[in-house]
Amino acid sequence: MTMNVMIDSLFDLPQEATVVVPSSPSTQTFSLPKLVSRLAYHAMMLEVHLTPKPGLVDALNNGSHDDMTLATFVVSANAIVPYFAQFVDTGTAHAHLPVTALLSGLRPIGVEAEQAMFSATHGVNTHKGMIFNLGLICGAVGWLQGNHLQVDELHIKEVIRQSCQFLVYDELKRCTQHAAATAGEQMYQQYGLTGARGEAASGLTTVMNYALPAYRECLIEGVATEQALWHTLLVIMANNDDSNLVHRGGIEGLRFVQDRASYLLKLGGYRYPNLESELMAFDRDLIAKHLSPGGSADLLAAAWLVHELVQLFENESFG
Ligand SMILES: CC(C)(COP(=O)(O)OP(=O)(O)OC[C@H]1O[C@@H](n2cnc3c(N)ncnc32)[C@H](O[C@H]2O[C@H](COP(=O)(O)OP(=O)(O)OP(=O)(O)O)[C@@H](O)[C@H]2O)[C@@H]1O)[C@@H](O)C(=O)NCCC(=O)NCCS
Ligand SMILES: Nc1ncnc2[nH]cnc12
């Protein structure tokens, strides 16, 4: 499926996500939270449809997964899209509070969204990290809006960093005596890797300092969307300590992926004429090793979403 056809097909959004704007302005049903949730949905659809994607579910194969397909991700995204509007609303509702109070407001929504995901996928973890990473971005947008602050990557990064600054200590460092309840906690106890929590506590550094600049360079160079997303995914895979990779293949598995992504970037990344066939070979190798950079896939969607949100707020004022 070409990216253009794929992008066009993305606009037949789930009914509840579409905003019908009647003719008379007085009854307009425009909603910023709903608009942001539609962008989050679009980010998830762009990510999962990007093909090929090494080790990950895409339109060609299920990567290193025997429990989920492209359809699983679409069903999952449809189930969780309403919660992204709630993240924005909750951010705005917490605008009068210090930013350090934001995460505790967002958490219950994230748990509900996870439950909706597991219900839609019959127990398969498709978007747990996506809910966390995109949920923080949506919550930050709501909080910034509520405080009439500029919605740009620096402000989004700082809101996330301040609201998650104690996450690693509170949930990982302080809990090493308890048995790990999740893969992420296990990876911390075994290897000291902080996973999604560490990424959030840094203010999504991999997204803001690596992925976003790389994606924007591609856009400035006039690179096709598919190539830009491939290049950005490689930048993330080369720089992100993805707990999924370590959970499946140990530190060796993580280093294998980081080194191969770095190698493809050294070949030129989006400038390299045979990038697609190299990505197909990379995909075959990760499937053979049962490795899947799920966290990196989430951060690709996050980078695209941040870029689109910043553009949206640059061009529009929403009161
Ligand atoms: C805060 C939590 C979300 C942390 O959860 P956990 O303790 O599990 O910690 P992590 O493993 O660190 O992260 C969970 C998911 O986050 C993605 N991820 C991994 N590394 C990173 C990273 N460095 N930066 C950002 N994100 C990262 C990853 O999610 C994706 O992969 C999953 C699919 O891959 P798969 O291999 O299939 O995963 P499994 O099924 O688990 O393994 P197999 O059995 O198949 O081998 C999928 O989730 C993708 O999204 C990590 O999996 C959590 O504790 C929490 O608080 N949740 C409550 C909800 C909440 O608070 N929401 C916040 C609202 S703002
Ligand atoms: N396309 C994908 N395949 C596997 N895990 C993922 N997590 C997020 N996106 C994913």
TrEMBL record:
One of its GO terms (molecular function) is triphosphoribosyl-dephospho-CoA synthase activity. Pfam families: CitG. One of its GO terms (biological process) is prosthetic group biosynthetic process. It catalyses: 3'-dephospho-CoA + ATP = 2'-(5''-triphospho-alpha-D-ribosyl)-3'-dephospho-CoA + adenine. Belongs to the CitG/MdcB family. PANTHER family: 2-(5''-TRIPHOSPHORIBOSYL)-3'-DEPHOSPHOCOENZYME-A SYNTHASE, TRIPHOSPHORIBOSYL-DEPHOSPHO-COA SYNTHASE. This is Probable 2-(5''-triphosphoribosyl)-3'-dephosphocoenzyme-A synthase. It comes from Celerinatantimonas diazotrophica. The lineage of its organism: Bacteria, Pseudomonadati, Pseudomonadota, Gammaproteobacteria, Celerinatantimonadaceae.
